[in-house]
Amino acid sequence: MNCWQFKLDQIHDYAYYEKAFSEEECKKIIKLGKRNLKKAETIKAKQTKKFRESRIQWLFPTEENSWIYRKLTDLVISLNNDFFKFDLDGFLEALQFTNYSSKIKNSRYDKHVDRMYNFNIRKLSVSLQLNKSKDYEGGDLNLYYNNNPIKMLREQGTLIVFPSYTLHEVTPITKGERNSLVAWVSGKQFK
User: Fold this and answer.
1) Cα 96 from chain centroid?
2) Structural domain containing residue 174
3) Mean of the pLDDT values across residues 124-142?
């Protein structure tokens, strides 16, 4: 049987760097992020409580935190070149410091994709683990490619990058707190 085969690009499900940020750097980011935490909301604010309970702080580029942007940029470019090869423009949104705490009832973020309508096209989602794994229970970042979740590494300083169209969640925190730095790398429309 004759056929015409397409040659497809290999796009990985996710990529990561262990110890991308040091313990000291993670502590500095936590200190910056906890300055002015607010209840997290989504575009449909009335529905937020139904699937998301966390507190956040937006970290816009400043002299004080430019080192975070620089380091994330270098790491994301490297991972993109090795694993995704997406056409990227940059961080067109501020970095989001996110706090999940057992002091907040049912603190979690249910299954979702990082897509916004009539806005920048998010191509890569970035999650930096800021706590030590022993600091909390629950709060796992899970990616879904079928019905079975893939549990991401939770060691302090681990940077995880995945396509923004990937279904993912943060499971409920049952003890302690989990802090992370989240970012989205935008680019031109997928072709």
Assistant:
1) 9
2) 18-187
3) 97
